[in-house]
Design goal:
This protein is mainly alpha-helical. Helices cover 84% and strands 0% of the residues.
Length: 113
């Protein structure tokens, strides 16, 4: 099934964001730190399971390209939950970078038969 690649990408994005939460809550709030650590471990395991399942049906290069879309998941979570990070972002540069990213991924995907 082709759904495994996007699911893996989503969980990779959650995993990376949860690692940010671990560094944020380390020493500040032990309970939130433990929750973030648990979420990080769980999302790491789930993402790897979906990566393995997607490799059964797709070319590994395509799976890797799909995994790069975890950037969008991490970006959205950061914008939603880390309000202070939003102040540091140059929005026009971010949108331009994401646009170039999508074009690059599309070109790579079109080059593989």
């Amino acid at each position: 099934m082709y759904i495994y690649g996007p699911l893996a990408s989503m969980f990779v994005g959650f995993h990376i964001f949860s690692m940010n939460m671990i560094t944020t809550y380390y020493k500040k709030n032990k309970k939130l730190f433990n929750i973030s650590l648990l979420i990080s471990i769980i999302t790491f395991i789930i993402s790897r399971i979906f990566i393995i399942l997607s490799m059964k049906n797709m070319n590994p290069v395509i799976v890797h390209i799909i995994l790069n879309f975890a950037v969008f998941v991490t970006l959205i979570l950061t914008l939603l939950f880390c309000k202070d990070s939003f102040k540091k972002i140059k929005l026009k540069m971010l949108i331009f970078g994401l646009f170039i990213f999508v074009i690059g991924v599309s070109i790579i995907q079109l080059s593989i038969k």
